[in-house]
Amino acid sequence: xxxxxxxxxxxxxxxxxxxxxxxxxxxxxxxxxxxxxxxxxxxxxxxxxxxxxxxxxxxxxxxxxxxxxxxxxxxxxxxxxxxxxxxxxxxxxxxxxxxxxxxxxxxxxxxxxxxxxxxxxxxxxxxxxxxxxxxxxxxxxxxxxxxxxxxxxxxxxxxxxxxxxxxxxxxxxxxxxxxxxxxxxxxxxxxxxxxxxxxxxxxxxxxxxxxxxxxxxxxxxxxxxxxxxxxxxxxxxxxxxxxxxxxxxxxxxxxxxxxxxxxxxxxxxxxxxxxxxxxxx
Length: 281
Ligand code: AMP
Ligand code: MG
Known about the structure:
Elements: H1 3-7, H2 31-55, E1 59-66, H3 72-79, E2 88-92, H4 98-101, H5 107-111, E3 119-123, H6 132-135, H7 141-144, H8 147-160, E4 163-171, H9 174-186, H10 198-202, H11 205-219, E5 226-230, H12 234-250, H13 263-280
Parallel strand pairs: 1-3, 1-4, 2-3, 4-5
Helix pairs in contact: 2-12, 3-12
The structure holds adenosine monophosphate and magnesium ion.
Adenosine monophosphate (AMP) binds near residues 92 and 124.
């Protein structure tokens, strides 16, 4: 199945998130089969990242957005494990620091966008500035409402500079969120994940859905589309996200670069060094 076609939000369309089946798993997929497939995708991602890193011409930005417990951390842990740490980094968007807060909302994002040859994953992103900021009325409507356009311009500039942008919304149901909150409570090794705000944010579910729907309608563009991935089943979420990343990277035209040196000359140097070593023996 072409998950890009299946889960992409066409530019300008208003999606109703409550109408989307968050426990979708495809017709022929099974957990067992998916595990092998995910492994293949992870391996291919690692090969493609090697080419991206070697070529140093393009870059990839993966934006992960979701409500609490939807699996942003899980996606990062499972899918990016195969990538070379030299060319990959993750940046998590928290409440802005004092320094971040005195700048424009895109400043901290721009500081962390990928340079040529790099893959960067945003765990949350500048989209929080039209989501949590809007839901909690941290700035006035006249401020956040202008941000969609600013975001589109920002992404356009990154794309013009050779960055491919992939934006995922990991979509879980309220029921699934509650059962994950329970697992966190029941499992001491997950207690650190529990946050004071988990339940107050959950109470704002409809407001968040509205804010996400508006953000998608304004910022899902042909060149930087949003994908809404059903995420109640972790294995399916990982399968769909990894497939979409691989398919996208395959189309980036990544190639090993030509040698930057005169190989004939380097071979001559090598043979000279070999002869000299022989002479010394
Ligand atoms: P977590 O992803 O669980 O580490 O939580 C990070 C928290 O920071 C979330 O509650 C976000 O909503 C919050 N956050 C991220 N960006 C912003 C922002 N621009 N303004 C206010 N809160 C933010
Ligand atoms: Mg959290």
